[in-house]
Automatic annotation (TrEMBL):
Pathway: Cofactor biosynthesis; thiamine diphosphate biosynthesis. Residues 275-446 form the Thiamine-phosphate synthase ThiN domain. Transmembrane segments: none annotated. It comes from the Bacteria. It comes from Maridesulfovibrio hydrothermalis AM13 = DSM 14728. The lineage of its organism: Bacteria, Pseudomonadati, Thermodesulfobacteriota, Desulfovibrionia, Desulfovibrionales. GO terms for cellular component: cytosol. Its EC number is 2.7.1.49. This is hydroxymethylpyrimidine kinase. Residues 14-256 form the Pyridoxamine kinase/Phosphomethylpyrimidine kinase domain. Gene3D superfamilies: 3.40.1190.20, Class II aldolase/adducin N-terminal domain.
Length: 454
């Protein structure tokens, strides 16, 4: 097997496992690299705060770095919590002749509010900046090192210029502290205009160790040969996914889920298998042919943290029927196989995250009567109301219409079906929503039973 790219992390130890060396090594490993470490301090902490800090002697920090680099081919490194001026100076001396990219995360304060950098170490940290290929301060850290308030785009540009003057080749000011719908990080590279790098903001209290995770993942990307912009973008995507997949660990702020990519790959295989089984059951369901639209039926199923159509599986050839009523499930379950239905499901999930499945049904009077008789909550949209700046691709229409229909319903979280009456060249459809495959099949059977009673 080919050796993995090696990344060295120089940071403090987090006994709670969510930040510092522990977070770095998890992020480095999941990025496909080998992680080595030099520990600068021991902390006693959990999700609620830091109870104590025991720094390592500067000489021993330097010895760790030197010993690792003498034997292991380090291809990138990052720093995190350095704590004191003597430790920072020891790190600077040990890295003076480095021949690999270095990411400096100038950690000052923990998520819980505990100070992780002594007041007299600020100038020493600035003296370390010329060794950085990338500096990754958050807004409070950037304000500390530039001695200015950052409240606007213009402030960010000015702060980037000031920080670049201190010697790093590039600066990434992280925008997580700004109150905005999207989280925008600003990447400034010497000789270039700052680049806004946006990610959808994740609503979670579990943000402990996000800076460590991001910087470690960027360093891993640089070790693998990515250019700076690509390394930052890929790290952002990973962190965003890890935040969406985060879970409550203790009473306070938990960490991102560093294993999210691996766990989601496992979920994907399970979801495809479950969708295949659902298709087999539907193919044997009496009367299902009555519900199949002219454009054919499809079932879509989303991963727990689906954000895109590639996170939603469907049958590649859809579901159709013969004139005798035989159900034919065509193709195989695949992710991204149904853009229209995936868009509808993702929109519905914004209002009710418990929804994970949907199926497209024929739109006719008997089926609508059966849906009403079952007590299912309906939401409707009229294609004629579609704004002119959206009209065009069908996927955009479905996305707009589903969001509009559910959002305008008095109880959006209770919606079971989203209907539209079609348009010229567009068949009217009913989209039945469900929490899982069992719920989906149960709802279909209820509709069929109701239709049989007419």
């Amino acid at each position: 097997m080919e050796p993995l790219p090696c990344v060295l992390t120089i940071a403090g130890s987090d006994s709670g496992g969510g930040a510092g060396i522990q977070a770095d090594l998890k992020a480095i490993s999941i990025s496909g690299c080998y992680g080595a470490s030099a520990i600068t301090a021991l902390t006693a902490q959990n999700t609620t705060g830091v109870a104590g800090i025991e720094p390592v002697t500067p000489e021993f920090v330097a010895l760790q770095i030197e010993t690792v680099c003498q034997d292991i081919n380090i291809q990138a490194a990052k720093t995190g919590m350095l704590f004191s001026a003597p430790i920072i100076r020891a790190v600077a001396a040990a890295l003076q002749d480095k021949d690999f990219p270095l990411v400096i995360d100038p950690v000052c304060v923990a998520t819980s509010g505990a100070k992780l950098l002594k007041d007299d170490a600020v100038q020493a940290m600035k003296d370390l900046f010329p060794l950085a290929d990338l500096l990754t301060p958050n807004v409070p850290e950037a304000e500390l090192f530039t001695d200015m308030e950052i409240a606007s785009r213009e402030d960010i540009f000015k702060a980037i210029d000031i920080l670049l003057e201190m010697g790093p080749k590039a600066v990434l000011i992280k925008g997580g502290h700004f109150d905005s719908v999207a989280a925008t990080d600003w990447l400034g590279i010497k000789g270039r205009q700052p680049i806004p790098l946006m990610q959808q903001r994740v609503k979670t209290k579990n943000s402990h160790g996000t800076g460590c995770t991001l910087s470690a993942t960027i360093a891993s990307g640089l070790a693998k040969g990515y250019d700076m912009v690509a390394a930052v973008r890929k790290a952002q995507e990973y962190l965003n996914l890890a935040l969406r997949a985060s879970f409550d660990l203790g009473e306070g702020s938990g960490p991102p889920n560093h294993l999210a990519p691996m766990l989601i790959e496992q979920m994907k295989q399970g979801l495809l298998s479950d969708l295949h089984k659902c298709g087999r059951r539907l193919s044997c369901m009496d009367g299902l042919s009555q519900l199949v639209p002219e454009v054919r039926m499809n079932v879509v199923a989303a991963l727990p943290h689906a954000e895109d159509v590639t996170d939603v599986a469907a049958f590649s050839g859809k579901i159709t029927c013969t004139r005798k009523g035989e159900i034919i499930v065509s193709g195989q379950p695949e992710f991204g196989a149904s853009v229209y239905m995936a868009k509808a499901l993702i929109c519905a999930r914004k209002f009710n995250p418990e929804i994970s499945c949907a199926v497209s049904l024929r739109h006719d009077a008997d089926i609508l009567s059966a849906i009403a008789a079952c007590g299912y909550v309906e939401a409707w949209f009229d294609r004629g109301d579609e704004p002119s700046d959206i009209q065009g691709p069908e996927a955009a229409t479905i996305e707009w219409g589903t969001c509009k229909a559910v959002a305008e319903h008095p109880e959006p979280e209770l919606v079971d079906v989203v209907c539209d009456s079609g348009d010229k060249g567009r068949e009217p459809l009913i989209r039945l929503l469900a929490k899982d495959f069992a719920d989906l099949e149960h709802k279909i059977r209820k509709i069929l039973e109701s239709m049989a009673s007419f």
